[in-house]
Amino acid sequence: MFNKKHFKRFTAIVLMAVMVFLMVPPCEAHALDKALFAREYKAYLARLGKAESDKGAERMVDCAKAMVGKTGKDVDSGGAWCAAFVSCCAQTVQESAAVPYNVNVKGIYNAIKKAGGIPLVSVNSAKPGDIIIYRTCGYNYGHVEIVTKSVFNGRITSIGGNTGNDNHRKATVKEHSWSTSSVTAVIRPAYVHKAPAAPKTYLDKCTKAAVTSIILTADTRDYLMTMPCASSTSKESQAIRRMKTGETFKATAIYKNTAGNYWYLVKADSDGKTGYIYAGSAHYSGISSPAPISGNVSLGMQPKKGKGCDLLGTISSTLTIKTISGVLVGSDNKKQTATVSVGKKSFEIKPSAINKNLKFGRLPKGKGYVQLFVTLQAPYVDRNTLQTKEVTVALAKVWFTVK
After folding, report:
1. Is the pLDDT of residue 295 over 90?
2. Lowest mean pLDDT among 25-39, 106-120, 295-309
3. Which residues, 6+ apart, have CB-to-CB distance to 118 below 8 Å?
4. What pLDDT does 123 receive?
5. CA–CA dist 84, 62 (Å, integer)
6. pLDDT bracket for residue 146 (50, 70, 90)
7. CA 121 vs CA 37, 106, 153: distances in Å
8. CA-CA distances (angstroms) from residue 336 to 231, 311, 326?
9. Is the pLDDT of residue 18 over 50?
10. Helix (H), strand (E), coil (C) string for the chain
11. pTM higher than 0.85, yes or no?
């Protein structure tokens, strides 16, 4: 018979069950759209012109960065999805052995530990690629993300899914910094430090025709694409955004695709977006600024009247250096000139015709200077033909006083 004593016991059991339920973090989502992760990861690497890393931690960070801005609706979430996001990143970069698939925050931490992951004693030891657990909504194991930057000024940066909105479908993948006081645990997965053979992409079928460093101006409202081709040529190539007529891009490489057309790898000056644009949709507007030249020039010693002096240093560029010319001017404003043909991307000034033909010993006493002019060959495309523009860049004057 169900008496008063039984009723009290039944009520106590129900209350205990409710309390246990309330102590359990929200359940996680079902599997996310793995194909989306794979597409975005490949497109991200292609936009950067970057090969897949042989380090598992770096691959995890790259995959997470590729997904920044995606929403729960994009990834097809059915509930809270932060652990599912980390799991899908691991699957995409073939690190499921180190980060076993799990859709629960504490569950994924325990799975990583069981797979050989090493819990870190201090959050200050965290490195990009580590998995970090945050205390949120009163739960010690409330949220999980992938570390992207180590601790700085008491904060750590990471990327995670299901952030910024209580509505899981509207929540996004976001990179942000957290106070280290909100960290419950950090674990370093036992990543494989050798990437499996990457599947061939459309980019692998194209030829990298030239490295360049030029400014382009858009002539049409064509599209910035994820691959050097239109979507009709390859479904891998997706439109990033439409270009604006007159907007400028910095081009760093030229590719020839399978259809025989040239495309530039570019970065937009307006919003920093990277991708590929058809060469016929933009024209050459000049060399990139600052010019792609590195190195320094100096005098071996302060020149003295009647005694020679050498210029020292190495000039390098990402472009081919056609010639280097030197101009030497003394206090009498008389000029001496010398030119040397280079034909490569690096040039050591000493020994060279520059030093041989510039006669410091002939200078009168007083102030003077020497200046080098570097002529670069910048590849560009005109009417689907690869050509070069010769651009001369003046280096800084080196001043001296003849004693």
Report:
1. no
2. 25-39
3. 187, 188, 190
4. 93
5. 17
6. very high
7. 32, 17, 19
8. 57, 14, 8
9. no
10. CCCHHHHHHHHHHHHHHHHHHHHCCCCECCCCCHHHHHHHHHHHHHHHCCCCCCCHHHHHHHHHHHCCCCEHHHHCCCCECHHHHHHHHHHHCCCCCCCCCCCCHHHHHHHHHHCCCEECCCHHHCCCCCEEEEEECCEEEEEEEEEEEEEECCEEEEEEEEECCCCCCCCEEEEEEEEHHHEEEEEECCCCCCCCCCCCCHHHHCEEEEEEEEEEEECCCCEEECCCCCCCCCCCCCEEEECCCCCEEEEEEEEECCCCCEEEEEEECCCCCEEEEEHHHEEEEEECCCCCEEEEEEECCCCCCCCCCCEEEEEEEEEEEEEEEEEEECCCCCEEEEEEEEEEEEEECCCCHHHHHCCHHHCCCEEEEEEEEEEEEEEEEECCEEEEEEEEEECCCEEEEEC
11. no
Computed over every residue of the chain, the mean pLDDT equals 89
Q: Which of 16-25, 97-106, 254-263, 331-340 is the least confident region?
A: 16-25
For helices 56-66 and 34-48, give the axis angle rounded to 10 degrees: 100
Q: Average pLDDT for residues 276-281, to the nearest whole number? A: 97
CA distance 309 to 289: 32
| Predicted confidence band of residue 78 (pLDDT cuts 50, 70, 90) | confident
The pLDDT of residue 8: 57
Residue type, 214: I
State the residue for tokens 């990009």: 128
Residue 365 pLDDT exceeds 90: yes
* Rounded-to-integer distance, Cα 309 and Cα 398, Å: 13
Place of tokens 């994009």: 74
Q: Where is average pLDDT lowest: 52-61, 115-124, 186-195, 353-362?
A: 186-195
Rounded distance, CA 226 to CA 204, Å? Answer: 13
Whole-angstrom CA distances from 9 to 1, 17, 21 are 14, 12, 19
Q: In this predicted structure, what is the pLDDT of residue 21?
A: 35
* Residue in this structure with the two tokens 């370093």, named with its chain if needed: 188
Q: Which two tokens stand for residue 150?
A: 């180590």
Q: In the Cβ-directed half-sphere of 129, how many Cα atoms lie within 13 Å? A: 19
